[in-house]
Amino acid sequence: MKSEFPILQQDINGHPLVYLDNGATTQKPRSVIEAVKRYYEWDNANVHRGVHTLGSRATDAYEGAREKVARFLNAPASRQIIFTRGTTTALNLVASGYARQTLREGDEIVITPMEHHSNLIPWQQAAKATGATLKYIPLQPNGTVTLEDVEAAVTERTKIVAITYVSNVLGTINPISEIAKIAHRKGAIIVVDGAQSTPHMKVDVQALDVDFYAFSGHKMCAPTGIGALYGKAQLLERMEPIEFGGEMIDFVELHDSTWKELPWKFEGGTPIIAGAVGLGAAIDFLEQVGLDNIEAHEHKLVRYAMDRLSSIDGVTIYGPPADQRAGLVTFNLGDVHPHDVATVLDTEGIAVRAGHHCCQPLMRWLKVSATARASFYLYNTEQDIDRLAESLVKTKEFFGYESIG
Amino acid sequence: MSQLDDLYRRVIMDHYKTPRNRGELEDGSVTVNLNNPTCGDRISLQLQLEDGVVRNVKFTGEGCSISMSSASMMTEAVMGKTSEEALALADKFSALMKGEDVQFEDYEDVEALSGVNKFPARIKCATLAWNALRKGVEHGSGKHEGIEQ
Fold first, then answer.
1. Of all helices (H) and strands (E), which one includes residue A133?
2. Which residues from A are below 8 Å from B4, CB to CB?
3. CA of B120: which chain A residue's CA is closest?
4. How is chain B classified by DSSP, letter by letter?
5. What's the CATH fold of domain B3-145?
6. How far is B66 from chain A (nearest CA, A)?
7. Contact A196, A164 (CB under 8 A)
8. Among A13, A339, A390, A396, which would you mutate to test the B interface (most chain B Cβ atoms within 10 Å of its Cβ)?
9. Strands A350-351 and A353-355, bridge-based pairing
């Protein structure tokens, strides 16, 4: 599998690269790089306006990618797929185009403390702007939520439940389908941050019965700068565009204008066409491997990693047990600061993330200022995890951590 | 790990494990709070400036070995110096981070951080305390709070 990814063929600081920062972004297979290259070498033009051949080819490529995304998520129709810059932009689109338009004083938005800043701050801001209240579903000590707590948090006043499918820090997989049922029973809609789930497991937005679902392409082998928002048709119809300009208009008069229909009314300006083409190629690649196979592979890896890392004296792992989590392990090594851990690992050719992972409230909940995180993808192997574990032992020796603090 | 030995020399670990001038000043005239939002390192620096001289300096904070050892070294380097001398040392430290060959004659410990310039992602850890010092000295008196990007 690694041979499909040119970037993984290099040495870093004299060691073969072990890339374990897939929660941040993933590497790109040759087929995706080639698809983007081919687009620019053969098909590039602006979309939806050129009468010429290249204009048609570019439009077909762009809209073809939308069809692929719709099929990939099992959306009822491709017009329910809005291309965005990524998850952050998609969630902000819902917060600005839906929440701010519909929320009234006294309404509630319910989220969890495990949300990425991208699924927290847009709601914080929408609440401030409308007078709505932001409420949190409490976390269990192992970093999960219980349905009882969801039931208690979601009331008749709740209009929006916004939650991540998979936590980028804890790895927790939230029971989205059950939470959606609770939200709907109380008359709320559910918005799901799919940044960490979409790349790693089969997602069916109709089976989950979610109202909005956002994800990023770059975390699933596609280029950066492309992602999508899925929404239920009647909600998207009601939503107002938040970006105005080219591409999204129907008729423009001197003092008024009308918008195109879905999905284009939300796609002002020339879109990231090559990014969409790359996303389409990434979906082809992932489907060829099989999402179920990817999920099983990562599950095996995370179990192995938790076994290996927990056997190292001084390692603290955060989050639920392996059978309740996705393919990532967040940890600390004694009193060694995670930045120091990441720097030592880097000298061994191993890339991990260190910091607050855009989850400052969650860091406070964990009572740490920062953590290190190893996150896996389809090209990682048990040997990669062996290298990580061996290097962590070296790191510990280097810092003589027992004598710190 | 020979590259690392350059970075984490004994002296850095010594300052990390036994920080100098850690704590709070009761009569500090200037307080500067800075953090690195990308990594969570933070420092609160207190200076007692009198007649243009750094009479006393203390810091609290949390962060990696680089940021905390650098803070410890900085306090020792600028203690008793005039504001001009302290700012000149901050300039010198910036030069050190760019890989320039500079000497800290009065306080050589600081030179142990020269290896940080080989790790671009860590330079902002090392400069956090010095940026706080610069802000504190430049503002001279009164409270100042700032966010370091």
1. strand A133-136
2. 343-344, 347, 398
3. A343
4. -HHHHHHS-HHHHHHHHS-TTBS--SS-SEEEEEE-TTT--EEEEEEEEETTEEEEEEEEEE--HHHHHHHHHHHHHHTT-BHHHHHHHHHHHHHHHTT-----TT-GGGGGGGGGGG-GGGHHHHHHHHHHHHHHHHH-SS-EE----
5. Sufe protein. Chain: A (3.90.1010)
6. 8
7. yes
8. A339
9. unpaired
pLDDT above 90 (res A17): yes
Residue A356 has pLDDT above 70, yes or no: yes
ipTM for the whole complex: 0.80
CA angle A350, A356, A362 (to 5 degrees): 130
Q: Please state, in angstroms and as integers, the Cα–Cα distance from residue B18 to each residue in B15, B65, B146, following that order.
A: 5, 11, 27
A41-80 burial code (b ≥16 CB/10 A, e <16): eebbbbbbeeeeeebebbbebbeebbebbbebbebeebbb
Give the separation between CA A103 and CA A349, rounded to whole angstroms: 49
Catalytic residue of the set A358, A385, A389, A392: A358
The answer, yes or no, to whether residue A80 has pLDDT greater than 60, is yes
Residue A154 pLDDT greater than 90, yes or no: yes
Which chain A residues touch B125 with a CB distance below 8 Å? 339
Cβ atoms of residues B132 and B32 within 8 Å:
yes
pLDDT digits (tens, 9 = 90+) for A168-200: 999 999 999 999 999 999 999 999 999 999 999
Query: What pLDDT does A405 receive?
Result: 37
Which comes out higher in pLDDT, residue B141 or A77? Answer: A77
Q: pLDDT averaged over consecutive 10-residue blocks of chain B (149 residues)?
A: 66 91 88 86 93 94 93 96 95 94 88 87 93 91 43
> A23 by DSSP, 3-state: which?
coil
Is the predicted pLDDT of residue A27 greater than 80, yes or no? yes
Distance CA B13, CA A400 (A): 10
pLDDT at B148: 39
What is the three-class DSSP state of A330?
A: strand
Cβ-defined contact of A343 to B119 (cutoff 8 Å)? yes
Q: Is A358 a catalytic residue?
A: yes
Q: SS3 helix, strand, coil % of chain A, rounded to 5?
A: 45, 20, 35
Q: Is A394 on the interface with B (CB under 8 A)?
A: yes
Tokens of B3: 């590259």
Q: What is the pLDDT of residue B139?
A: 82
* Structure token pair of residue A218: 């770059």
For chain B, say whether A347 makes contact (Cβ under 8 Å). Answer: yes
B63 touches chain A (CB under 8 A): yes
Chain A partners within 8 Å of B3 (Cβ): 13, 347
**Which of A81, A82, A85, A163 minimizes the C-alpha distance to A119?**
A163
pLDDT at A247: 78
